[in-house]
Amino acid sequence: MPDGLDPYAVLEVGSTATQAELKASYRRLVKQHHPDAGGSEERILALNAAWEQLGDPESRRAFDTSRRPAEVARDEARARGARNARASQVARQASGRASHADEDLATWLRKVYSPIDRLLGQVINPFAAELRALSADPYDDALMEAFCTYLEQSRSRLNKVKTLFQSIPTPASARGFGLSVYHCFSQVEDAVTEFERYTMGYVDSYLHDGREMIREARQRRKRLQDERRRLEI
Fold first, then answer.
1. In what helix (H) or strand (E) does residue 214 lie, and over which residues does it extend?
2. Number of neighbours of residue 188 by Cβ within 10 angstroms
3. Considering the entire predicted model, what is its pTM?
4. Please, are residues 33 and 40 in contact by the beta-carbon 8 Å criterion?
5. Where are the domains of the chain?
6. What DSSP string describes 99-129?
7. Is residue 172 within 8 Å of residue 131, measured between CB atoms?
8. Which DSSP letter does residue 159 get?
């Protein structure tokens, strides 16, 4: 048989064909391509060579054994190609997910954390000066009114913080950080509540507790700012 011709392909059967199927196909093709029927002599020679290789079971087994390493090599090459394609696809998907996660985190930091940090600072930072002014005479109506105005503005800012928290879900990569931000907010909110109670009855324990909460919230906010700088964005 000419080099490069697969006898199974010449006989138009698969490599798993039975001997009976091989014989039936050979006979059919010989009749179809016989020179007396207008067929090609070259085609008949190829059919006879293929039948010589595959018609005898021993000869067929020898041929199958000889071609198996090449088939195995082709199969392994195809499998490697498929594995590489899958690995590339997984890598692209992972890269896409990572890029999307980075975008989500950057958006949350810009649209949620940054304005929240600014609003909390507008409550925490003025507190010391506001308290000093009130301490001159807590029973002075003008001083108390100024302190109450500060508390009203603080409450308004904290309501905005609450709205911001609900505007965009915290990304999975920042859940711990987001929880710490919420704890800082809650601490400031509790402090404002204590100050409001103080203004209604001048009970010093409310003022003391609120002042301690503000002190802790200030420290927590500073830690959050430091942690924010370490986020890989």
1. helix 204-230
2. 28
3. 0.58
4. yes
5. 7-89, 98-230
6. HHHHHHHHHHIIIIIHHHHHHHHHHHTTHHH
7. no
8. H
pLDDT digits (tens, 9 = 90+) for 150-188: 999 999 999 999 999 999 999 988 999 999 999 999 999
Does pLDDT of 143 surpass 50? yes
pLDDT of residue 75: 44
Residue 36 has pLDDT above 80, yes or no: no
Distance CA 59, CA 198 (A): 104
> What residues contact residue 208 under an 8 Å CB cut-off, 6+ apart?
none
- Given a cut of 70, whether residue 217 has pLDDT beyond it is yes
Is the predicted pLDDT of residue 78 greater than 70, yes or no? Answer: no
The pLDDT of residue 40: 81
Q: What percent of the chain has pLDDT over 70?
A: 83
- Say whether pLDDT at 33 is over 60: yes
Q: What is the dihedral of CA 154, 155, 159, 160, to 10 degrees?
A: -20
- From residue 75, how far is each of 13, 70, 78, 87 by CA, in Å? 20, 9, 5, 18
Topology of 7-89 in CATH?
Helix Hairpins (1.10.287)
- Please name the residues in contact with 222: beta carbons below 8 A apart, sequence gap of 6 or more: none
Residue 53 phi/psi, 5-degree rounding, is -75, -35
**Residue 46, φ and ψ in degrees, nearest 5:** -65, -40
User: Using an 8 Å Cβ cutoff, are 194 and 209 in contact?
Assistant: yes
d(CA 210, CA 195): 6
- Residue carrying the six token digits 């830690």: 223
